[in-house]
Amino acid sequence: MADYLVRAIGAGGNVRAFAAVTTALVDEARRRHDTWPTATAALGRALTATALLGAMLKDPNESVTLRVAGDGPLQGIICDADEQGQVRGYVNQPHVDLDRTPQGKLNVGGAVGSGMLHVTRQLALQGIYTGSAELVSGEIGEDLAYYLTRSEQTPSAVGLGVRVDTDGSVVAAGGYLLQLLPATPDADRDRLEENLVKLGSVSLAVERGMTPEEILAAVLEGIEYQVLERRDLHFACRCSRERALGAIALLDDADLSALVEEDHGAELTCHFCNEVYRFTEEEIRAVRKGMETQQ
Asked: How many CB atoms sit inside 10 A of residue 179's CB?
């Protein structure tokens, strides 16, 4: 099943709901960054959370960035998504695999540690807005729910999950996000809480084959709702060879000379997708010549 999310509205417009399956996306990130199991789970949850936040974007030029700044061994996670469903991200220390929790789960909270969660939205009409909140558990789903409730004054519930196979590959990944407006009836709030308990692990639901529509149906059972959108999701990076060469062009003449005379070329690696761009001496010389021409 291809990765995608669905967006819905229910309870007379008082409940906004999103659900996504992100298995291929997360496994692509695992492959590119060579993450170990605990790091895979943490990065996968952050990627899924960012994809769900991205579903709130309306303009093709808008984007959202999620930064998990924890003091655990992962040393932080950064992900971003755009309105087109393109998601990318990385963890600073990919080779982290802690002992499992007493419940037998991957210890994402321990790997993330304490710190802050930052959400930056680049919006077409309102510019750039960044909000922050303390990490409450390091589990990312709980942290995002706390951020949305506290910093954006929108009571929210977030479920994120990643199941990793014995060979390290991603078996299932996905998540949901619910937002309740102030006028949501108490009966609907209670029903939603019961539904979330009944659904349980979202990664297990995805592993059983549940689609985003079926996850939403389970979460919103007993509440009238309407699906507004389906959006494909995929791991994609905006880096390119041209952009990498443009970054080299920003270096001063002394650094460019060192690349030619000492390194005999240059190699740049994109943090977000781990793509490596290599440039020859001749290409660096051409950059220098172009700079001299402009002066």
From this structure: 21
